[in-house]
């Protein structure tokens, strides 16, 4: 694994290896897992709270120095291109780049042009592979397998990079993926069956809600919010019809009272804040794995503690 930009590129074996490796990430024997001082270039050209902060925590825990980049005070304001910005970071010694950008395929394109690992932290309506990995890890913690798991991805499918990454990866892992949304938000490029949420709650092990991504809508229509929850969202009534063991997920930020009744955000079946917690160790695992591929880790630093058994 040289980059982490799309779930289309990641095999079942690699996904399971990353999930198992994430479990090892709370281990710290006081030494660094790396042979040299590493520097991270976190290039966020779109707003972020969870992804940016959990990468910073992940990097700090691994002993990596994060370079202090802020788009709003960088030379991109003088017209410097994305490529030249990334190349600059490579030249001054960044060990890898974490990139969030509003344009689809930015990370994939840079992965072909730059000689250090690229991690996609969300590209337009394309993909969000590290969000997907933390989602997979959260499901694995709960169910210990993916094969045969029924997962409904619910909401603004058309504009969601989280939906795309999860649909691809869950299919790779043998889960049954269903999509649920209003007709205008269906995405013909995703070849998965659609299902009404009222039906999905009765049969699914995971109800994965998506944020309504108004910033990516061509027409802004805040009026939809008045009826969205009752028409398409997870109300308390729908949640009452969920299987006892089923879990509620959402990548957040949550539009409380729109995608989900606010009281359900922290209910006993919700894993929404657990997902955020898991974002740190899964991002540590991605960084570690990419560095291991480049031979800059101390042998099998984490694997030495407990052999990883990959199914
Ligand atoms: N889930 C997610 O990507 O959140 P942020 O936009 O806050 O990073």
Structure explained in plain terms:
36% of the residues lie in helices and 12% in strands. With 311 residues, the chain is of the alpha/beta class. The chain has two domains: 7-128 and 278-304, Rossmann fold (3-Layer(aba) Sandwich); 129-274, Aspartate/ornithine carbamoyltransferase (Rossmann fold, 3-Layer(aba) Sandwich). The strands form two sheets. The chain has a four-stranded parallel β-sheet, with helices on both faces. A four-stranded parallel β-sheet has the order 6-5-7-8, sandwiched between helices. Helix 5 packs across helix 6 (161-172) and helix 5 packs across helix 10 (272-293).
- How do the SSEs run, as a string of H and E? HEHEHEHEHEHEHEHHEH
Give me the count of strands: 8
CATH C-level name of the largest domain: Alpha Beta
Total domain count: 2
Q: Unreliable segments (pLDDT under 50, ≥5 consecutive)?
A: none
Write the layout of secondary structure elements.
Blueprint: H1 12-23, E1 39-44, H2 50-61, E2 65-67, H3 82-91, E3 96-101, H4 106-113, E4 118-123, H5 129-143, E5 150-154, H6 161-172, E6 176-180, H7 197-203, E7 206-209, H8 225-232, H9 236-240, E8 247-249, H10 272-293
Parallel strand pairs: 1-2, 1-3, 3-4, 5-6, 5-7, 7-8
The chain binds phosphoric acid mono(formamide)ester (CP).
Residues 48-51, 122, 131, 251-253 line the site of phosphoric acid mono(formamide)ester.
